[in-house]
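We keep the chain:
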Amino acid sequence: MVDIKTLESKYPYRIELHAHTSPVSGCSEFPPDELARIYHEKNVDCLCVTNHYTPGMLQNGRSRRESVREFVDAYKKTKSFGEKLGMSVCLGAELRFSPDNNDYLIFGIDEEDCDAFYDYLAGSVEDFCREYKKSEHFFLQAHPFRDGMIRVDPSLLDGVEVFNMHLNHRSRNPLAAEWAVEKRLIPTIGSDCHHPGHQATGLIRAKQLPENSADIASLLFSKDYLFEINGFIVIPNFGA
């Protein structure tokens, strides 16, 4: 029988993989300082900022430099506020490409990657994976069974978000979990935090504290972590 207290002790670090700040993610209610504050209040140890990076950036009236700088600055501001509170903050992105409304989370990235992403927004996910994605990047499809989503060729993916805890969408998490097992994709979880009440509802728990995006990617590739759903420990199904 699994002892929950032992698991909590063995995997003490609580990590958010999916959260957004305003105004970069226009659907978020939280500026960087507020997002850091609410996650600190929830005793989260590591927060990944995964703002939307979409074809809309090509039509927002800003230059490439301005758009990328705004995206990176939102992460840097959250990181600065978070570190003052004693919380690790890591860089991620939620990418979308022109042909459809699918969303993809990517980790193991840096500021140079954020600039390079801009070149692929008008293309397809296939173009991105073939021409740019690196082996050290952890690339997953977010909420693949939400309305308007299309399941992508699983050979392009490292993982899939099997628990998306956004309260205002039907993400059909059980179907995503089945798909992950069927396609042998690494399962992840995220709060998809945009609004009050969303924060820290879906976390992973790890043995060590990630310090940067590369650490997040390595952790996910390791498959050595737990899920925490609204305070309850869940052991992920990593398949055979």
Residues 64-84 form the longest helix (21 residues). Helices lie at 4-10, 32-41, 64-84, 111-117, 125-131, 173-183, 213-222. The chain has one domain: 4-234. The chain has a mean pLDDT of 95.
